UniProtKB/TrEMBL annotation:
The chain crosses the membrane at residues 12-32. This is Alternative oxidase. GO terms for molecular function: transferase activity. It holds the Pfam family O-FucT. It comes from Mollisia scopiformis. Signal peptide: none annotated. GO terms for biological process: fucose metabolic process. Keywords: Carbohydrate metabolism, Fucose metabolism, Membrane, Transferase, Transmembrane, Transmembrane helix. InterPro entries: GDP-Fuc_O-FucTrfase.
Amino acid sequence: MATRLSPRISRRYGSLAAFLLLLFSVWLWVAVDRPYNFPSHIGWNIYSNSPQSDVVSEDIFDYPPVHSSAIKAVCAATQWNESLVFTCDDNVGGIGHVRNSILNCVRFSIAAGAGLVLPRISVRNDSDISIIHTGSLTNMAYLFDTRHFIDSISLSCPGLTLYPELDDFKKINNANNPIRLSPQALGVKFPKTGMEDPKKFATAMPKAGMDKPEKWGELFHEWYADIGEQYQFIGTTKGPIFIALLRSYLTWPILSDGQAFSTQFGKILKLRADARSLATKVVKNMAEKHKFAANVHAPILENSFWGVHLRTESDALESLPEVSKDRLYPTYAMQTKLYLDFMTQERNSVNSSLVYVASGDPAQVANFWKDAKVMNWTVTTKVGLLRGKDLAELNDLTWDQQALVDFMVLAKASRFLGVGHSGFDWALTGRRTVSLSNKNGTKIDSARKDDNKEIKKVAVAEVGESAFLNQLFGAKGEVKAYKTCLWP
Ligand SMILES: *[C@@H]1O[C@H](CO)[C@@H](O)[C@H](O)[C@H]1NC(C)=O
Ligand SMILES: *[C@@H]1O[C@H](CO)[C@@H](O)[C@H](O)[C@H]1NC(C)=O
Ligand SMILES: *[C@@H]1O[C@H](CO)[C@@H](O)[C@H](O)[C@H]1NC(C)=O
Ligand SMILES: *[C@@H]1O[C@H](CO)[C@@H](O)[C@H](O)[C@H]1NC(C)=O
Ligand SMILES: *[C@@H]1O[C@H](CO)[C@@H](O)[C@H](O)[C@H]1NC(C)=O
């Protein structure tokens, strides 16, 4: 049954929840043997995520809540602990990044047996997209389908109690001031000095995920016992203690819970409904306009279109990853050359000269259109495939929300080309590989220097011979963390 926060709170929410559950979602009550605590002041819109119109749009990207026995087995082995509640508000960047850090929060909550307040997302600065740390937080419906998340957790991990908002606990213990924890720091042997310097701290952290994720729950409880001296209210109060999980991008090794868990876990985060509906329109309009015969419901559309991610946006140029000696320079010239050469060489592997290009950089898309045309490719984009009200709806979305449409369309491309230093591209290739298991997954080719001689060498020497589903270009040394820790 429900985690009881205090008699007062549980009475208030208990009766409210009973009423709302009867009214709106009786099935939830039946499916889940604990009530979800609905606060009185949250509008229903954040749970439904439905677009403004009453017309139900077609949605080829929809799927039911996740009911996974692999996840259930991991959750069943957890000792749930009502005195601990985690928050997960340090989620910044684009969909690839945010998705991974939220999934990690859920995994850490399971490991500790803690409850979780619905994660929040940091909203990127709309006038300068390279500024991701804005301190402006919004709820997870910004990118995801919150209802689907709640339902999937209820079905696949019934022990994990979700709470809508930290504000609901204003007066309880340290809810106003959760204890901050960088989860992947537990168990790391830090040098005695210099750790207040963020760079030194980052250097001491594991680079490609934690060594022993299965020990994390134990490490957490040891850490928690130790901080009792520093936070004297621990152990003296009733009700939960709140712990704020700091950003944990690329930390939990995804295979540590087995293959089935690793492929199903990411599906608890379904993208928001209005983006799904726009992506459906893009794919259907593309099929109609360019006359490809594939069934748009298939996970990958064979012989239909090439998908390309042009990762030249200002945030990629300005906020270079730090472990980057060996990285692919994210310039337009280099990416275009690699992509077009590769596609031309592999032209016969997809019976289509249509290229769907995704980029948050319209000027470079226009250049790509021209450069590709010379080599007999037809380039299209989401903007080119939407009209009128749909286009207006797309334009009303923020930069990161618009990227969701590209993410879904690219997921269906016959073949996908991207860069190896993009979380977006890795999340995408992971999903694509999982959705079609009989094809080879991702191949990494390395490129070192941003000059034509080097590019040629790479294109000739390293392009794969077999028809891989995904092709990423980048430096080999950088990909270990993505491969190990990015949930598909
Ligand atoms: C957003 O970017 C603009 C333009 O660079 C800047 O003036 C503004 O202060 C930024 N706002 C935040 C919250 O970072
Ligand atoms: C919950 O975790 C706390 C902190 O580690 C511990 O003191 C307590 O015994 C745990 N309770 C249960 C029921 O496991
Ligand atoms: C390629 O596409 C053309 C035109 O859509 C079609 O006539 C042809 O049969 C296709 N070939 C293969 C090998 O799928
Ligand atoms: C493009 O197509 C034209 C006409 O079929 C052909 O003459 C030209 O060689 C092609 N160019 C490339 C780069 O394939
Ligand atoms: C997968 O890769 C192997 C080894 O490179 C190759 O032999 C095989 O043909 C590939 N399969 C597909 C479906 O591309």
